[in-house]
User: What shape does this take?
Amino acid sequence: MKNKTKTLKIQTNGLFAIFSDKELEKHIKQYSKEEQRLLWLGVMFGQNNVVNKLNKMKFEIIDN
Assistant: This one.
């Protein structure tokens, strides 16, 4: 049986801003401590959601 490689193209949504890690941290630091906590919570939920979906699809992410 041949080993097939699955390819998934992940695209951004123009509705939301795109930040590097450094830019995101700088942006979030502009807010009060409570707002920062909620913003980081949202970021982590979003990241966890994407990783969970990729894992369910059995995709392996390889950083080249």
Summary: The CA atoms of residues 8 and 59 lie 8 Å apart.
